[in-house]
Write a structure and sequence with these properties.
about 220 residues; about 55% helix; binds CO-5-methoxybenzimidazolylcobamide
């Protein structure tokens, strides 16, 4: 990697960490113009500082407002990458319904999963955050997706994944979809325990998992 590119990635990292949305936008544009690989800008420029934001929050150096403005800056950067991540002309290989579970408003990871799935040729229907189990049932009936993707970032809301699956079973729609789960506190073991069809640790793995579940890998 050229020194110039490393420098611009550092600038993006710092801009997200500082919650400076204007600088994030400017440096992401500049990195792309310089020919930086999109995945490098994403991982080193935008995702890495969010990990640091989490660490600073744990240490008591950052509070919710700082997390929020960093998240906003990161989203501005993501919006620039979105068309590049989602570049595809191929017909949809499957339909994915995506949402963050009830009680949880974290959506950056979910949005990223959605973008990567779109980029891989899936049609994505994102029903947002804080989605109640009944809403997932309704959306499955309306959109008839092949896959349901559930995201949770809090240890307190990961249990909602299990509640959601139970609700789908009671409504008789569980067997109409494959269910994939993800988010920082989720593990393979947890996915198995709650009766999901698979767990993905990151957006790239969510794409491989969704493809494998539909036999298009
Ligand atoms: Co929150 N927050 N937050 N937060 N926040 C965490 C998650 C936390 C770990 C911070 C910390 O303490 N270190 C902590 C949770 C602790 C715990 O549960 N054990 C926490 C807390 C405590 C809270 C509040 C309770 C704080 C408070 O109010 N006191 C509160 C809860 C609000 C709620 O949801 N009810 C809260 C609020 C917020 C903000 C609103 C300020 C903001 C979210 C803004 C937004 O999303 N629009 C926020 C942020 C930004 C974070 C951190 C700093 C960053 C999350 C993020 O966007 N990461 C986070 C710390 C951290 O994660 N290290 C933290 C970047 C993103 C790309 O990664 O989301 O992990 P991630 O997604 C990855 C994978 O997990 C995976 O792929 C993604 C891409 O690779 N993945 C999937 C995610 N979903 C998937 C679905 C899949 C497959 C893969 O299939 C369907």
């Amino acid at each position: 990697m050229s020194e110039q590119l490393e420098q611009i990635l550092d600038e993006i990292y710092d801009a997200v960490l500082d919650g400076d949305a204007n600088a994030t936008t400017e440096f992401v544009h500049r990195a792309i113009e310089m020919g930086a690989p999109v995945d490098v800008v994403l991982n080193e420029g935008l995702i890495a500082p969010m990990k640091e934001v989490g660490r600073l929050y744990e240490e008591g150096e950052y509070f919710v407002p700082e997390m929020l403005i960093s998240a906003r800056a990161m989203k501005m950067g993501l919006a620039i990458l979105r068309p590049l991540l989602a570049e595809t002309d191929t017909p949809a290989i499957g339909k994915v319904l995506l949402g963050t579970v009830k009680g949880d408003i974290h959506d950056i990871g979910k949005n990223l999963v959605g973008m990567m799935l779109e980029g891989a040729g899936f049609e994505v229907i994102d029903i947002g955050v804080d989605v109640a189990p009944e809403k997932f049932v309704e959306a499955i009936q309306t959109h008839q997706p092949d896959i349901l993707g559930l995201s949770a970032l809090l240890t307190t809301t990961m249990r909602q994944m299990s509640v959601t699956i139970q609700t789908l079973m009671e409504a008789g729609v569980r067997d109409k979809v494959r269910i994939i789960v993800g988010g920082a506190p989720i593990t393979d073991k947890f996915a198995e325990q709650i009766g999901a069809d698979g767990y993905a640790a990151d957006a790239g793995k969510a794409v491989s998992l969704a493809s494998a579940l539909l036999g298009v890998a």
